[in-house]
Write a structure and sequence with these properties.
alpha+beta, 9% strand, 295 residues, Endonuclease III, domain 1
């Protein structure tokens, strides 16, 4: 496909391309660059070849893409039908109804490369997004691939050749250094992360937590953000708890059970509640370009 030719992404049902593109450009989990024409370029390591490629997301409300459309479908989860999620508009919870109405059509953005996505989740355990981003960038700059003056996260084969101390010197904790190197070696010895796209959610959760360094929060996070399981909510996530509290006018952070109860109203689309809360949290802090904080 000619990268200079724009192709329209045809989603399965309503799709908030404007919101998805804004979120994609604003979070440090992805390697992006905006050119002088306003095209948002996303760098990724191809899940099969390991080569670094780029995807261009044109400005506007219509999803015009330059590059590999299959990769765009994966990032935006555009073929996933949200038709059944409209039932949220009828639940007895005004916060849920409002969230769904505001972000209806937006799907949880995905990582193209499963190893990078799981690595990002491991790096983010029990620290802020800002610190996790710093650690990820250090690894990318030291061992990744240069792209438009930035760096793309390295492949599992590169990380597998490292010793724990190589990552500790980049200020990772020894535990996280061990988790990443050991995971990379498991992949190099035949562990397939791709199978988690296909496994039923409960089975996938059981298998993921068997991997050292992946606990309940990490397993739920990667199922939602890497493997496209929209029925999962990482209710242990502190940011989600804070945002749910804020929207409900509560002074203190709610406990996990509040989110579990709320997600039950979303049924098999519970992951949408998580993603919409993350998006709304960024918006409330004026961190979502083109979507100012609401009064």
């Amino acid at each position: 496909m000619d990268d200079k030719t724009a192709h329209e992404l045809h989603p399965n049902g309503q799709f908030r391309y404007d919101l998805a593109r804004s979120f994609l450009s604003s979070v440090s989990a992805y390697t992006t660059d905006r050119d002088e024409r306003g095209v948002l370029w996303v760098a990724y390591r191809h899940p099969e070849t390991g080569d670094v490629e780029e995807l261009g997301c044109l400005p506007g409300s219509e999803a015009q893409i330059r590059g590999n459309l299959d990769i765009a479908r994966r990032i935006f989860l555009s073929e996933y039908s949200l038709k059944g999620a409209d039932g949220v508009l009828r639940v007895d919870c005004s916060v849920s109804r409002t969230l769904y109405a505001q972000y209806r059509g937006l799907r949880p953005l995905q990582f193209v490369n499963a190893f990078e996505g799981v690595a990002w989740a491991i790096l983010g355990q029990q620290i802020s997004v800002q610190v996790a981003s710093t650690l990820k960038n250090r690894i990318a700059e030291k061992y990744g691939t240069s792209w438009r003056g930035k760096f793309v996260f390295p492949s599992s084969s590169v990380i597998a050749r490292l010793g724990y101390e190589d990552l500790v010197r980049l200020h990772l904790s020894r535990a996280k250094a061990q988790y990443l190197v050991d995971l990379a070696n498991l992949i190099e010895r035949g562990l397939s992360l791709e199978r988690f796209y296909r496994l039923p959610t409960e089975h996938a959760l059981e298998e993921l937590v068997k991997i050292k360094g992946i606990g309940p929060w990490t397993a739920r996070y990667v199922l939602l953000r890497v493997f496209g399981h929209v029925d999962v909510i990482p209710f242990q996530d502190v940011a989600l708890q804070h945002q749910w509290s804020r929207l409900n006018g509560l002074e203190r952070k709610v406990c996990q059970q509040h989110l579990v109860n709320a997600s039950g109203l979303w049924g098999s689309y519970a992951g949408l509640l998580a993603f919409y809360l993350w998006v709304d949290r960024r918006r409330s802090r004026n961190l979502l370009p083109g979507f100012p904080a609401q009064e």
